[in-house]
Amino acid sequence: MTHLSRTLPIKRAAHVYIVQDGTLLLVAERMDDGSIFYGLPGGKAGAGESLADAAVRQVKVETGLIVTDLNFVSLLEGEMLTGTKNECYANFGRFTANFRGELNPTDPEVVGTQWVPFADVQSLVRYGPPPEVEERNPLIWVPTRDFLRGEARAYYPI
Prior knowledge:
Blueprint: E1 10-17, E2 19-20, E3 23-30, E4 36-39, E5 42-44, H1 51-63, E6 66-80, E7 88-100, E8 110-117, H2 121-124, H3 142-148, E9 155-157
């Protein structure tokens, strides 16, 4: 049997748990299929950009808030979306941070922000199609579920 080597693109992203009075800040984004997706503020890191720098930049664009004093919470890592056009090796960091400023998203995909009580976060998460979108993969939400329970681990292999 011949084993062919393959190279997967690496997708690096960072998100921030922004917490205030028992609530978590989520952003509402319009997906390509027109549906609304609730997610953590943050996003993809650019070439040569650290996960922490990506988190600061993306939170500013998606929420208008300035985050400082980032603290590492967890890393989710492994192959995702195998067999789809978006298969990749994921390297997703999660942080907590101090924040200041007013909620004022400038990202055109963000249709709103919402402070959500910890107990209600999971009910806003939508899993399912389209399968090539990693945000709809339940594994992506395991670190957040654990964080909200006060049980975050540092490393989550996919």
